Amino acid sequence: EDIREEIDREFPKKGISRRNTGYAVDLLKDTEPFVPGAEPFNFCKLIAGSEGTLAFVTEAKLKLEPLPKPHIALVCAHFDNIYDSLLANLVGLEFNPTASELIDHYILECTKDNLEQKENRFFVEGEPKAILIVEIRKDSYEEALTVASDLVTMLKQRNLGYHHPIIQDEDATKVWQLRKAGLGLLGSIPGDEKSVPVIEDTAVDPEDLPEYIKEFNEILDQRGLYCVHYAHAATGELHLRPIINLKTKEGNKLFRDILDDVAQLVKKYKGSLSGEHGDGRLRGEFIPYMIGDANYQLLKEIKHAWDPDGIFNPGKIVDTPPMNTYLRYKPGQETPNFNTALNFDSDLGLMRAVEKCNGVGACRKTELTGGTMCPSYMATRNEKDTTRARANILREVLTHSEKNNRFDSEEIKEVMDLCLSCKGCKSECPSNVDVAKLKAEFQHQYHKSNKIPWRTKMMADVAGKNALASKIPSLYNWTMVKGPLAALAKSILGVAAKRSLPKMARQTLLSWYKENRRNYFGVEKPNKGKVYLFNDEFTNYYDVEIGITAIKLLTKLGYEVEIPEHVESGRASISKGLLDRSKELATTNIKLLENLVSHESPLIGLEPSAILSFRDEYPDLVSQDLREKARQIAQNTYTIEEFLSNKVDVGEMTSKQFESSQASIKLHGHCHQKALSSQTPAKKILSLPKNYEVQIIPSGCCGMAGSFGYEKEHYDISMKIGELVLFPAVRNQTEETIIAAAGTSCRHQIKDGTGREARHPVEILWEALKKD
Fold it and tell me: Which stretches does DSSP call E strand in 501-656?
């Protein structure tokens, strides 16, 4: 009885649903045999939340909760301060919501520059200090809307909040995506000061939350700190992350002092220092203070009874080392600086770009959860192949290596090997860790100490080799594509025997353009302005018919098409880390195009990976004196889908220009489109013909990724990636269904993987266009 009284006196309030301090003896004490007639004793209550310190679980039977009601209404109330938002939370709880979650202005600020999340800001009005998202779920749309409206009325009556939009159904998903991205977004803050997870899941009674947070922020103010607030207001557990530089001795001490101060505050409100994330090594040291020495001894006895040899996750919950040891950064640790080919100034250097990874693990997606990042992990399910692993190996080696060239590392090379440079992480990683950029820089630096392989040079200069081959296309095709020497040629090049090679066109697009430009390519004279078509190295030599079709389509729609003088995009060189060559190409193109490309006469392209290099890599490749010119060109550079979609928006392109025949289209998006642009423009323009039904295939990367899928050691993983979603989706379509794909690699992969011919969107539009 004394032990039970001690537990009641020292443990968090029973009304706090999120409490995970120590072992859950406060739950066990209220079961049989301690309380006659209570629910049966169940050791699962003890094991849950024990962080692997008591047992190794190989099988578990789950108790399921009913699915929530189908129709959603979100009240997204905007506030000028955190305190009012927490008062509003108490009002929201009166309406029995399924969730009440907070986002503060620090996170909202991070979403402005996040490629994926800025589209989810559609409901944000002004510059709120906090947004409280209260979710109402009901059986019908009308019922959910009624309850949400009543909540808004009550908030307005109590003068809580300045803007109260109600978001429903599909748009609600975007709001929750914005909220869930919070943790990762915090890692994108540049510099050494980061939002640290030291007291990030303290929980108090929701009734106490406004005053608790008020006192909490006073503690921070006294130490000259500020804090990020977000997440689970409904349960009294906000994620609170103060901004601290853990690389300094002062920051390391502050890390501990803040936890000490806040532990006392949580104890005052009889809250839980660990609401959901557990004590681990971070807060285990403070458990005796939080629950009393007598209860802590009870925890130690439980640990010894279950694990007398101390083999299960030692050093967690009980007998933990000091909380400011075993940290990622040592006090006084210096951050190495490197002279890089790519510009990392926005991240304050390459190392800090790497350190943006905070380990949240959003890169551990599968084909079932959707998205592109990370294709190789989806296929292998190996942690080594995640975005996180690549950032971690770079951080570890570049920080601690004693080599003159720290990039000369076989460990980094191995972990980077299966990175497809798809760019998925640039937009989908909440912290925007751009591993494709980091890989290109790593390869560039690695090559300084290691001989560049012959195949790498060949594939990086694919445009130069194609220029030679285009003079003898028939001989090239006979030798490399389908003749008796093709197998030998692939073997010499290190190309997979099962992989087909692209066929060289009989005539380059540039030569056709020069021959036909005087008669406007057989179409009437255009009158809607000029566009510059970037004649990329893939369209010019392989996909010439697509290029011809694009020029005819644009001209027929009223736009004068000019192929300006330019060189190859350098996409192949970038992907192989030959950045000196890439810089020369980028510099040449910027100088050739700087006085041509403008808002009135934009640069457009057919191959996403080539044209989007102007928006992505070029501003980071060219020297500082050309950087602003590169940015200006980037602002006026579009994929052809983006350009045409913009013309639809302003009414220059309408459904009346197209036939009304029926067609079903399945659209696969190129990785760079998904990361740096959007699939929406392609869907919009393909939906313009009245009876065209367009559905986006929920695929990630096709698996080809430029040269990656050709290389013999990568062929199997390339095809495995394709089999995750794309290949089955294509095979399941009828012969009449049109498969659309803008990327030349995507179309090639679809052909090799399924036997189906995928078409570029411009081909589909040209066929649907009224010609009279």
Answer: 530-534, 560-562, 603-605, 637-639
